[in-house]
C-alpha cells in the first residue's frame, strides 16, 4: 500500500501586477497556502488553498488554512493509503466542519499524487477531458474607468480576453452603473461585459443596479446581495433579463441544492476551493446541470497550481456556458510554475501531463515563501 508519509505546508506572498480593487478590500499581494504530500513510494503531490483579501472575502484566512491543515487534517491522514482519495475526503468531512479551502488544498495534492502514480492527468480520474481549452475572462478592477478601458482594449487587441468582469460595489450604485456603461460603450460588441458586486448591495440598491446594468448592455451580475439573502437573489433572478450568478452563496453541494431549489440564481460560479475540493465541486456542477442552470468556472485568484487543478475538473464538464475566469496567474507578478499556464486566443489551455499537470519552480517558491515551511510526518509503524 502506498501510504501518506509527510504533509508539508507553507505560505507564499506574491505581489499583484496592480492594485485589485474589490468592494471589500484592495489587494496588492496574493497569499497562497502550498501543500506538498509525500508518499511512501517516493511520489509526491502538490496542492494549494487560496482565498481573497485575507478574511474580508470569506471565513478562512491563509494562516487559518495552514493551521487547519497542520493541526487537524494532516494528523488524520498520515499513515493512510494515498490511493484512497474518496476515503480521505469522507474522513476529513466527518472530522472537520467547514474549512473548505484547507480541505481543497490537501485533496488537490492527493489527486495529483494519484494521477502521477497512475501516469494519468487528473481529468482522466474524473472520466476524461472533453475540452483542451476554455474561454477565460479578465477582471477589470483598477478602480478607474479610463485605466480599465485602456486595459480592456489592449486585451482585445492582443486576443488574450474578450470577456470582462468589472468589480463594483464600492461606490454608489449610480456611479457604478455609469462606470460599467462607459466600459461597455468603449468595447462595444467586441467583448462581453459582466459585473461582480461581491455582496455589497441591499435589495433596494440591487433593483436600481440591475435595471441600470441591463440598460447598459451588461450581461450578468454576480452576487449582488449578501450570500444569505436567498429570497432577494430569487426576486432579482426572476425580475430581470440580466443573468444573476451565485458565488459567495455557494459553499458546496448543499448550498447548490438550496440555491437551485429556491430559484435564486441563473448561473453557478463553481469554485473548487469554495466547494470544498474537486469532488465537491463536481457535485455542485451536477446539481447546476440537473437544475438547468448556466455554469461558470470561478477562481479565488489562485496561482497556476490550483488553476491547473481547476482546469483538470472543468475540462470534463460538457458545457460551461459562461466560460471561466481562471486568470489568477496573470494577476501575479510572477508565476510559481516551472511551465506557466498558457493563455491565448481568448482561452486558457488545459495543462498537459500527469497529475494536475503542474510542476513548481523551486527558486520562486524559495523567494516568495513567508517562513520556513512546516512538515508533519507519519509515526513509524503507524
Ligand atoms: Mg465573485
Can you describe this structure?
The structure is a single chain. The chain has 382 residues and is of the alpha/beta class. The chain has 2 domains: 134 residues, 2-Layer Sandwich (Enolase-like, domain 1); 226 residues, Enolase-like C-terminal domain (TIM Barrel). 39% of the residues lie in helices and 21% in strands. The protein contains 14 helices and 14 strands. The strands form 3 sheets. A 7-stranded parallel beta sheet has the order 5-6-7-8-9-10-11. Strands 3-2-1-14 form a 4-stranded antiparallel beta sheet, sandwiched between helices. Strand 2 and strand 3 form a beta hairpin. Helix 1 packs across helix 3, helix 2 runs antiparallel to helix 3 and helix 5 packs parallel to helix 6. It is globular, with a radius of gyration of 20 Å. The chain starts with a strand and ends in a 5-residue tail after the last strand. The model has no long low-confidence stretch (mean pLDDT 96). Bound molecules: magnesium ion. One of its GO terms (biological process) is peptide metabolic process. Its cofactor is Mn(2+). InterPro entries: Chloromuconate_cycloisomerase, Enolase-like_C_sf, Enolase-like_N, Enolase_C-like, Mandel_Rmase/mucon_lact_enz_CS, Mandelate_racemase_C, Mandelate_racemase_N_dom. Pfam families: MR_MLE_C, MR_MLE_N. Belongs to the mandelate racemase/muconate lactonizing enzyme family.
Amino acid at each position: 500500500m502506498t501510504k501518506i508519509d509527510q504533509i508539508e505546508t507553507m505560505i507564499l506572498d506574491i505581489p499583484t501586477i496592480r492594485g485589485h480593487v474589490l468592494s471589500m478590500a484592495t489587494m496588492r499581494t496574493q497569499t497562497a497556502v502550498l501543500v506538498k504530500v509525500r508518499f511512501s513510494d517516493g511520489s509526491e503531490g502538490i496542492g494549494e488553498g487560496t482565498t481573497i483579501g485575507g478574511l474580508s472575502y470569506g471565513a478562512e484566512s491563509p494562516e487559518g488554512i495552514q493551521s487547519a491543515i497542520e493541526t487537524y487534517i494532516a494528523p488524520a491522514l498520515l499513515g493512510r493509503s494515498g490511493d484512497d482519495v474518496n476515503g480521505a475526503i469522507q474522513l476529513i468531512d466527518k472530522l472537520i466542519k467547514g474549512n473548505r479551502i484547507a480541505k481543497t488544498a490537501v485533496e488537490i495534492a492527493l489527486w495529483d499524487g494519484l494521477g502521477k502514480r497512475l501516469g494519468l492527468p487528473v481529468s482522466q480520474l474524473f472520466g476524461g477531458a472533453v475540452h483542451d481549452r476554455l474561454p477565460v475572462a479578465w477582471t477589470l478592477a483598477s478602480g478607474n474607468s479610463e485605466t480599465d478601458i485602456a486595459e480592456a482594449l489592449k486585451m482585445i487587441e492582443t486576443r488574450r480576453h474578450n470577456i470582462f468582469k468589472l468589480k463594483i460595489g464600492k461606490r454608489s450604485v449610480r456611479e457604478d452603473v455609469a462606470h460599467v456603461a462607459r466600459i461597455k460603450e468603449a468595447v462595444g460588441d467586441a467583448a462581453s461585459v459582466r459585473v461582480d458586486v461581491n455582496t455589497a448591495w441591499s435589495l433596494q440598491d440591487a433593483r436600481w443596479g440591475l435595471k441600470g446594468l441591463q440598460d447598459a448592455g451588461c450581461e450578468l451580475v454576480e452576487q449582488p446581495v449578501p450570500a444569505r439573502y436567498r429570497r432577494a437573489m430569487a426576486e432579482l433572478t426572476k425580475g430581470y433579463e440580466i443573468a444573476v450568478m451565485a458565488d459567495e452563496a455557494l459553499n458546496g453541494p448543499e448550498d447548490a441544492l438550496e440555491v437551485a431549489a429556491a430559484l435564486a440564481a441563473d448561473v453557478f460560479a463553481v469554485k473548487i476551493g469554495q466547494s470544498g475540493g474537486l469532488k465537491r465541486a463536481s457535485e455542485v456542477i451536477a446539481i447546476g446541470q440537473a437544475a438547468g442552470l448556466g455554469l461558470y468556472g470561478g477562481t479565488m485568484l489562485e496561482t497556476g497550481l490550483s488553476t491547473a487543478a481547476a482546469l483538470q475538473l472543468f475540462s470534463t464538464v460538457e458545457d460551461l456556458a459562461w466560460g471561466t475566469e481562471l486568470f489568477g496567474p496573470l494577476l501575479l507578478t510572477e508565476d510559481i510554475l516551472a511551465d506557466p499556464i498558457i493563455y491565448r486566443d481568448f482561452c486558457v489551455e488545459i495543462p498537459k501531463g500527469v497529475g494536475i499537470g503542474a510542476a513548481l519552480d523551486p527558486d520562486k517558491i524559495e523567494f516568495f515563501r513567508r517562513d520556513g515551511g512546516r512538515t508533519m510526518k507519519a509515526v513509524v509503524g503507524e
